[in-house]
Backbone:
């Protein structure tokens, strides 16, 4: 196995399950690898907002002159996107020896694809001479492979209903799983404005240093700027984060709380905060692509995220027609996702996705037909996201907007191979 793709194919064959929560197997291999970090570690869990939080932490730390390492999942187009060192995605060639190291340490232990690849990336990061490691939790927290690493500062973003078959059916039980990343005596930043009581109770039970939005830190703002205040530190006159959406101020507030909590080990200047927030980039999070018609890409893949997307779309102003492209996993609460988007959608384009987990375009179409209440709304089915967007572009007027959402696979399918040409057909010369 000489290439990254060889190793990824190997990882897909090792375990009969895609998800097998539990740390015993991962910890055993991590111990054999002597996996440890010599720098502050920030671990980020939550239902939505994890990727944005990691991106803002990274951008500010880079502007402060620190050497950063970031692990996020899943990827949009290329696996290598999951690991960035000093702001750049690592290469497949850099990852290969770390996959070999996991295989050597495995000694017959069965690992899922996620567990194996997580250990390989953590192995690379641990040897990269980092000043700070930023780790996004894949699913839940307590039993996620990332949790084999003890965090120096935990961040919990929004907590909502998702992955109920693994995490539980309500916010309290899901919150308890996410609180599993907290550590005794270490900062625990909770940026959810109304966190489950289970998160607070667990933090207090283990003696974590709990930072709550509204109690230990807060933000305020007007149309031009915003400000943040926390324990012994304030930022005033901040420009809004480059990541769009009202929810990004909540994420940014958690980021500033985490950096304030770590200021003795990882100091950042006010200018680094300003520059980092102004320059942060993250594809697929309310990403607006320039051109006509307007194209919006968002990986929203659960009802809570779709509700935030709809609120952000509402704030964009008037568009004659909104074309909705949707591809999604079958195990999501699809009816709730559709219901939240129905008031804005004038035309639907349902798409198949290249994974067995996905609901079919026909299945999505049938669900929409059972829920649809507005007359005059049309729908069609397409074999892949690019075909769906091409159909939407062909049907759209220049003043319309096209919204692509539902899954990383859906948005990744658009980004792969470059963005589509957006100028509406009757404007082309």
Residues:
């Amino acid at each position: 196995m000489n290439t990254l793709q060889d190793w990824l194919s190997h990882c897909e064959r090792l375990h009969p399950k895609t998800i097998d929560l539990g740390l015993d197997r991962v910890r055993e291999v991590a111990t054999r690898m002597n996996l440890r970090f010599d720098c502050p570690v920030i671990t980020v869990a939550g239902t939505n907002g994890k990727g944005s939080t990691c991106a803002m932490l990274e951008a500010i730390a880079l502007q402060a002159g620190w050497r950063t390492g970031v692990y996020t999942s899943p990827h949009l187009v290329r696996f290598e996107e999951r690991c960035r060192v000093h702001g750049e995605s690592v290469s497949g060639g850099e990852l290969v020896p770390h996959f070999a190291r996991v295989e050597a340490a495995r000694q017959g232990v069965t690992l899922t694809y996620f567990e194996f690849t997580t250990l390989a990336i953590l192995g690379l990061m641990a040897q990269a001479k980092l000043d700070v490691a930023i780790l996004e939790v894949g699913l839940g927290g307590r039993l996620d492979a990332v949790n084999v690493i003890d965090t120096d500062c935990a961040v919990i973003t929004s907590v909502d209903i998702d992955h109920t078959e693994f995490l539980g059916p309500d916010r309290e039980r899901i919150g308890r799983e996410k609180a599993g990343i907290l550590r005794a005596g270490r900062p625990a930043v909770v940026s959810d404005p109304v966190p489950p009581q289970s998160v607070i109770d667990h933090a207090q039970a283990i003696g974590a240093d709990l930072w709550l939005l509204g109690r230990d830190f807060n933000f305020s703002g007007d149309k031009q700027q915003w400000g943040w205040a926390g324990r012994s530190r304030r930022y005033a006159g901040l420009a809004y984060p480059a990541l769009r959406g009202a929810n990004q101020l909540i994420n940014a507030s958690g980021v500033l709380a985490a950096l304030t909590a770590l200021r003795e080990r990882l100091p950042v200047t006010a200018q680094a905060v300003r520059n980092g927030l102004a320059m942060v980039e993250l594809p697929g999070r309310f990403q607006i692509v320039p051109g006509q018609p307007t194209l919006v890409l968002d990986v929203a893949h659960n009802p809570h995220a779709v509700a935030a997307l709809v609120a952000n779309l509402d704030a964009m102003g008037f568009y004659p027609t909104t074309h909705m492209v949707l591809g999604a996993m079958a195990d999501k609460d699809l009816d709730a996702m559709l219901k939240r988007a129905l008031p804005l959608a004038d035309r639907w384009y349902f798409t198949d996705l290249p994974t067995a987990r996905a609901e079919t375009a026909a299945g999505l179409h049938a669900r929409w037909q059972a829920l649809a209440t507005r007359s005059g709304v049309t729908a069609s089915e397409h074999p892949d996201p690019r075909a769906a967007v091409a159909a939407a572009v062909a049907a759209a007027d220049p003043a319309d907007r096209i919204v692509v959402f539902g899954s990383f696979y859906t948005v990744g399918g658009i980004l792969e191979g470059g963005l589509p040409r957006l100028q509406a057909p009757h404007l082309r010369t």
Remarks:
- The domain at 4-279 is CATH 3.40.1190.10 (UDP-N-acetylmuramoyl-L-alanine:D-glutamate ligase).
- DSSP finds 15 helices and 17 strands in the chain.
- Confidence is low (pLDDT under 50) at residues 424-429.
